[in-house]
Amino acid sequence: MKIVYLYAEVMGYTMATIRELIDRHVAELHIVHLDSKKLTPYKYQNANNVTFYGRSAYSTAMIKELVSRVDPDLVVVSGWQDRGYLQVARLLRKKGIPVVTGFDDQWHGTPRQIAASYFSFFLKRYFSHAWVSGPYQFEFARRMGFNKDEIVFNLYSADLTLFNDVYNKAQHNKQSNYPHRFLFVGRFEKIKGVDLLVETWNSLGDKRKDWELHFIGDGSLKSYLKAQTGITISDFMQPNRLKDEILGAGCFILPSRKEPWGVVIHEFVAAGLPIICSDTCGAAPVFLIHGLNGFSFKSENIDSLSRQMLNIINTDDQELCKMSEHSHGLGQQITPAMSAASLISIKRQTAAV
Predict the structure, then answer these.
(1) Superfamily of domain covering 2-157+334-352
(2) N or C: more exposed end of the chain, with fewer CB within 10 A?
(3) Which whole-number Å values give the CA distances from 150 to 2, 98, 146, 180, in the listed order?
(4) Structural element, H or E, at residue 152
(5) pTM as predicted
(6) Residue 157 region by backbone torsions, left for phi larger than 0, else alpha for psi between -120 and 50, else beta
(7) Mean pLDDT of 57-70
(8) Is pLDDT at 194 greater than 90 in this prediction?
């Protein structure tokens, strides 16, 4: 089987699913991807039978020529903003090739979303199927005109080989010396709520006890964070280096103002960290059970975030170890193998009709 991805950014979790596709299902994989104005400096590693093409070097005509030459059995399109991708998708739909679009956004019933739903038949001109990350995205896909049998789940999976390894290495040390460190990993931007986290942290004062707060990432608020006292800032890290930092963490926090999904939640529960995240995070219904392996708080509400941070701070180490175990278990609900198989099921289903 041959697959073409018309993609946005290639990320670590993308590569985890790609490796599964190559190992189990696919003879060739061709990926056109965003290679300029990226949100993160993640560097992918080449893989056998996978060819990468930087979007900046490929015009729409060149992508059409590529797709014609490859003659794929299945095409995946990430994002609807690239008009060139849409032109290619429309061409392939006319040829009867399954074209899959990813849904990682949530349905909020905004005027813009409602207006788009009235013209959903236009979307079906480009895409035959929807590949969604979770239940909120399923609702969005249904609102946009996709039938239930045209939707598959498991769009995203954490690289469980990496994060399960962190969990296994950390367990012995956590039993004897649980790390009292909150950790944020992501973009230093207002949408991620890093300013809210700093303000909340400062408000805790002596209630923080011996807990620390570490930030890892990059973004426009980096200078703001560096101007603060009582926190630690580290630059963006490639996944293999990040592993060492996770070993020293006791709770992951994602205080986003908006977070359609949040693969990072999956990554850190798999690594065995209790989680605190805002109620906007789309991955929370799958990977967080409030009170079992972490806590959810009301987005942009400092009092709410403060209460949940204090819940972690005031929990004894033995109970935190149990929360860690629960997190790890929940992290196994979606795997790269399941993600790859969900995509391949679309081709198998259409071939059986």
Answers:
(1) Glycogen Phosphorylase B; (3.40.50.2000)
(2) C
(3) 20, 10, 6, 46
(4) strand 151-152
(5) 0.94
(6) beta
(7) 96
(8) yes
pLDDT tens for residues 105-128?
A: 999 989 988 888 887 778 889 999
d(CA 213, CA 242): 16
Is 275 in contact with 287 (CB distance < 8 Å)?
yes
Round the average pLDDT of the chain to a whole number and report it: 93
Quick one: CA dihedral 3, 75, 132, 341, positive or negative?
negative
Let me know how many helices (H) and strands (E) the chain has, helices first. 15, 13
Number of Cβ within 10 Å of residue 138's Cβ equals 19
Instruction: List the one residue out of 58, 90, 84, 72 whose CA is nearest residue 30.
Output: 72
Q: Flag whether pLDDT at 352 surpasses 80.
A: no
Residue 156's identity, in one-letter code, is: Y
Tell me the two tokens of residue 167.
Answer: 């969990």
Q: State whether residue 220 is helix, strand or coil.
A: coil
Q: Are 243 and 266 in contact (CB under 8 A)?
A: no
User: Rounded to an integer, what distance in angstroms lies between the CA atom of residue 104 and that of residue 11?
Assistant: 15
Question: Is residue 133 left, alpha or beta, with left meaning phi > 0 and alpha meaning psi from -120 to 50?
Answer: alpha
Class of domain 160-330: alpha beta
How many residues does the structure list for the chain? 353
Token match 């399954």: residue? Answer: 98
Q: Where in the chain is the domain with CATH 3.40.50.2000?
A: 2-157+334-352, 160-330
pLDDT the model gives residue 353: 52
Question: Which letter, b or e, does each residue of 25-60 get, where b requires 16 or more Cβ atoms within 10 Å of its Cβ?
Answer: bbebbbbbbbeeeeeeebebeebeebebbebeebee
In angstroms and rounded to an integer, the radius of gyration of the C-alpha atoms of the chain is 21
